[in-house]
Amino acid sequence: MDDLILWTPWRMPYLVDEERKKRDHACVFCLKGRGEADNADYDRREYVVARSEHVFVALNLYPYNTGHLLVIPYAHVRSLENLPAETLTDLMLTTNKALAALRKVYQPHAFNVGMNIGAGAGAGIPEHVHLHIVPRWRGDTPFMTVISGTRVMPELLPDTWEKLRAAWA
């Protein structure tokens, strides 16, 4: 039997950390958050779905599932206890809006919502706290992940961004 090969070249920059080297070790979330507020072209390019006063919502560039969102405070802090009450409130209210948009667009059966605070907990960017929202469907853990650690994504990020941006409005 021939081996099956699935090509995922879009993952290589993450694996070799090329993007982080290009940014001179700047925080990717701070750069994305500062951006060009009220510039739809910038938000499209950076996959920023929505912005509020204290947080913004962006697609995860390396998603677990289609629609995997991040809710990210503008404040560069490592943990929740370093955020003021206004930001914590905005974080949760914006998370609710994200859940509603995901339900409208994808009709998931459930969600995983959570944070990995610190590298020891698995945070990929431990210096800037952020919340993950992962839509889930019954049976969405196919054999591919179990056998080869490969995920099969049915939709391109630009298409996901378009749908969620429209649903947010």
Plain-language structure description:
The protein is of the alpha+beta class. It has a single domain, classed as HIT-like (HIT family, subunit A). The protein is 38% helix and 15% strand. The chain has 7 helices and 5 strands, in the order ααααβββαββαα. A 5-stranded antiparallel β-sheet has the order 1-2-3-5-4. Helix 5 packs across helix 7.
| Strand order within the widest beta sheet | 1-2-3-5-4
Number of helices: 7
Largest sheet: 5 strands, antiparallel
Radius of gyration from the CA trace? Answer: 16 Å
Number of strands: 5
The parts where pLDDT drops under 50 for at least 5 residues are: none
Strand content: 5-15%
| Terminal Cα span | 50 Å
The CATH H-level homologous superfamily: HIT-like
Structural class: alpha+beta
